[in-house]
Specification:
His_Pase_superF_clade-1, single chain, about 35% helix, 7 helices, alpha/beta, 5 strands, Rossmann fold
């Protein structure tokens, strides 16, 4: 059995997106605000994290910065997993405004993350998101305690929560099973 500590990134500096008019994945390059940094330092003090063996992170800047702070505070290595990235609101990566992101998110919520029969939406479905995150989780079943730094929608989809996940909050997720055979486990020191 593996205990996962799913930590949403600290508060990001979304204003950079509008300032530079970033589009698609460019919108995921923003760092944490000073408040976001403080949130993560506070989360690092949580007793549950002290026995963790590794940190696994989304590749997005806000999650990586969160993982870096935790790594420094807890003395743990970081593994970056591309498939821990946030929910894809636009699979064409063309959205370029907060208004469009909100519109896509509202459509996702209105459809409960499921494409209506006979329709394809521009956003990643709940099933697609859950499947890619679960595949990453399964790679770390050889550990007892794992920290994952990631994103609200991905965390909510995994744990079945409907409410917004606060920045730098910790959600627990337990999973049993056999680890996938991977070179990853031979390179990690316990």
């Amino acid at each position: 059995m593996t205990q996962f500590y799913l930590i949403r990134h600290g508060e990001p500096d979304w204003e950079i997106n509008e300032l530079y008019q970033l589009k698609g994945h460019g919108r995921d390059l923003v760092p944490l605000t000073d408040t976001g940094v403080r949130q993560v330092y506070e989360a690092a003090k949580d007793e549950r994290l002290q026995a963790a063996e590794i940190i696994v992170s989304s590749p997005y800047t806000r999650a990586l910065q969160t993982a870096a702070i935790l790594s420094k505070e807890l003395g743990l290595d970081i593994r970056i997993e591309f498939d821990l990235r946030e929910w894809q609101p636009d699979l064409t990566f063309q959205y370029g405004s907060l208004e469009r992101l909100t519109e896509l998110g509202n459509d996702y919520d209105a459809n409960h993350g499921v494409y209506p029969p006979g329709e394809t939406k521009p956003w990643e479905s709940k099933e697609m998101l859950s499947s890619r995150v679960e595949k990453v989780i399964d790679q770390y079943l050889g550990f007892q305690k794992v920290i994952i730094t990631g994103h609200g929608m991905a965390i909510r989809t995994l744990i079945g929560e409907a409410a917004e996940t606060p920045h730098a909050s910790i959600s627990e997720y337990t999973k049993t099973g056999s680890p996938l055979k991977s070179k990853l486990f031979s390179t990690v020191h316990h």
